[in-house]
Design brief:
By secondary structure, this protein is of the alpha+beta class. 25% of the residues lie in helices and 23% in strands. A hairpin with a 5-residue loop joins strand 2 and strand 3.
Length: 69
Amino acid sequence: MRNIKYTVYKEGEHYVSQCLNVDVASFGGTVDEAIRNLVEAVELYFEDDHSDDYIPIEQALIGECSVNG
């Protein structure tokens, strides 16, 4: 069993959930659905033996700032 960290954000009409430990994302019509779909996608990802891709993350922060460009 692995713990995952993820972010959820709204894009158009959908909520996008993105795992920070492995390169897997999903979406849903609600936040809860997006998270459930992400958990399923990550479990399927690990079924194909991608265990070396897992990056443990102890703490995650989210921030916002402006950049030139």
